[in-house]
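ok trying again, last paste got cut off:
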Amino acid sequence: KPPSAIDRSGKRLFQLAGVPRSGTTLLSGLVDQQPDALCLSEPFRSWVMRGGSRYPGGVWTRHPSRLIEELCRVRSEQCIGFKETFFTSDHRHGLPNERFFRRNAAAGIVTIAIVRDPRDVYASVEASVGSRTDVPERFTRTWVAFAEWARDAAACLVTYEELATSPGPALERVCEALGIECHAPEATVAARFGEGDSRALRGGSVSTGSIGRFVDRLDVAKIAQIERACGEVMEIFGYA
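nice, full thing came through this time. structure:
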């Protein structure tokens, strides 16, 4: 079953999305700490890649939509959702899911999106997987495709930069979109189960240290390459 077809048992379903290395694990952790929300971390990708979805009760080996359906039935939280990273058909290594997100949003599942400066995103990608001679076109195409879709489809869109510098107001907007009361975010995010950025899953403090890090990590040619491909959309989000 797609998420839109499950028995919600009166609960509100949501999806939280962003390109890899854009802060989805951080944002989903902050949402998950809200008393009236439960946010799984990449249950669909984990099921496809590893054969099971990790959740607070252990590992679920059946289809993740059935897990969400079960959680809607047994959990007390009003909002049940998941976060997944956004991949287009350019990414053949894992789970191209652009149509999955679009279909869910069109079916009324509340969409929360997070966007980060693509120069910092790519600097983080290289720090994780190693440096390349140039920026792959699939990276810039994916960032632009996600940012343009999220701008139109998301019930709430936050940037990584505002989340890191002012987590309270950013989270208040997310909670308003989910229709729940916002409790002030803690200074730290608790450790949690799931797939995603391992550092963020271990928990810790919300830091602004990675904002603008691309200046020191990327050479001028790569920065220019990203700006040529993404610049028009970057300006919409206030990235100079």
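cool. The two ends are 42 Å apart (CA to CA). The longest helix spans residues 137-153.
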